[in-house]
Amino acid sequence: MSKVILELNSVTIRFGGLTAVDNVNMKIEQGTIRALIGPNGAGKSTIFNLITGIYPPSAGEISFLGARISDLKPHAITEMGIARTFQNIRLFDEMTVLDNVKIGQHCRTKTGFLGSIIRGPSVKAEEKAITEASMEALKLMELEHKADELAMNLPYGEQRRLEIARALATNPKLILLDEPAAGMNPQEKMTLVAMIRKIQSRGLTIFLVEHDMKFVMNLSDRIAVLDYGRKIAAGSPAEIQRDPAVIAAYLGKEVV
Ligand SMILES: Nc1ncnc2c1ncn2[C@@H]1O[C@H](COP(=O)(O)OP(=O)(O)OP(=O)(O)O)[C@@H](O)[C@H]1O
């Protein structure tokens, strides 16, 4: 059996009277594609916020490659090798595609973005490494030929891929994708499926939240299902599609 990269152990978070994530256990194996699905408000994005250190859990713990991360700050978690994208596009529209990727890395380098403007020799070497890593990430998402274009001039599907490139440039071992296919047309979704597989083939682990069932069923090795903060099912796409609790949670909607 392969190595566990991420483990959630009885993770709970309460916001006032609301238990948004309720005693969730999960183990994700390295190199796999895991999806997290569930109705609106089930707690999916909150789980990503817990993993990336935006919120500390009210109870339980999260570990990454065997080390406890649930009391670390977001930047420390990024440095350990977890990157993410967000549900809504968060690009700098009037910056180039390349700069949008580079800025993601400047947040974690010693000099930072301002330091790169006041250039010293070590800063220049760091800048070169950042540019190289950024171009490599753009290449993986097949956007290297658009490096000098403004982000706002990219079609929607490419803007979403650019966000993934930005996350990849931080050299993560695990990447969390929050609704990566949202708003994409069928062609853009097919391209994205192929690219996520390519990322997986480089040895990365992918954990994604997604509402598009066809996309999820097509791509995932395993799926976990949340409803009202609780994990109600986990299994292969075939197992999830015939799980009575999942069908009930999605009542009126088809689990493709
Ligand atoms: N910071 C917060 N303060 C208070 N309540 C919150 C906070 N963050 C999330 N919640 C609540 O926690 C619950 C879970 O929200 P979450 O955004 O994780 O759901 P989701 O499954 O990602 O939904 P969707 O599919 O609509 O994005 C919701 O009831 C939400 O209102």
UniProtKB/TrEMBL annotation:
CDD domains: ABC_Mj1267_LivG_branched
Annotated PROSITE patterns: ABC_TRANSPORTER_2
Keyword Ligase found: no
Annotated keywords: ATP-binding, Nucleotide-binding, Transport
Name of the featured protein: Amino acid/amide ABC transporter ATP-binding protein 1, HAAT family
Domain ABC transporter: 6-253
Lineage of producing organism: Bacteria, Bacillati, Bacillota, Clostridia, Eubacteriales
GO biological process, one term: D-alanine transmembrane transport
Organism listed in the record: Desulforamulus reducens (strain ATCC BAA-1160 / DSM 100696 / MI-1)
Keyword Transport: yes
GO molecular function, a single term: ATP binding
Stored Pfam families: ABC_tran, BCA_ABC_TP_C
GO CC term, one of those recorded: plasma membrane
Top-rank lineage group of the source organism: Bacteria
